[in-house]
């Protein structure tokens, strides 16, 4: 879905600091080495631990895309809204599974 978002230069009001914030957020909360290690670890985990981990990833993704909407053109915000809604659906599905267990 992200590939359809055009190359967009945000208004000058967005400083380099804001871009660094988004990159840092993604690196720390979505694609961190800690999370990658958690996923690739062979340590046994309960279903609850796995679901809680996945819920955290979905939540962090939603927050990231909400912030990223500030950097795209108005005509592209609807595409990010679709991604956000998809992430919310994932979150709700995971909550349903968690309630059943």
Overview of the molecule:
By secondary structure, the chain is mostly helical. The protein has a single domain, classed as Up-down Bundle (Ferritin), CATH 1.20.1260. It contains four helices and no strands. The chain has helices at residues 16-30, 33-40, 47-68, 77-100. The termini are far apart.
Gap between N and C termini: 32 Å
Corresponding CATH superfamily:
Ferritin, core subunit, four-helix bundle
Please tell me the overall pLDDT: 82
Name the shape in a single word.
Answer: flat
Provide the CATH architecture: Up-down Bundle
pLDDT under 50 segments (min length 5)? none
Structural Rg:
16 Å
Number of strands: 0
Helical fraction equals 55-70%
Q: Give the number of helices.
A: 4
Give the amount of beta strand, in percent: under 5%
CATH class: Mainly Alpha
């Amino acid at each position: 879905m992200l590939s359809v978002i055009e190359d967009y230069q945000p208004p000058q009001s967005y400083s380099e600091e804001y871009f660094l914030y988004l990159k840092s957020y993604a690196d720390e909360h979505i694609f961190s080495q800690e999370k990658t290690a958690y996923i690739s670890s062979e340590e046994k985990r309960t279903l609850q631990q796995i679901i809680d981990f996945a819920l955290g990833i979905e939540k962090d993704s939603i927050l990231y895309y909400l912030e990223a909407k500030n950097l795209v053109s108005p005509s592209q915000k609807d595409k990010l809204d679709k991604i956000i809604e998809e992430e919310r659906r994932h979150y709700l599905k995971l909550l349903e599974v968690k309630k059943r267990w």
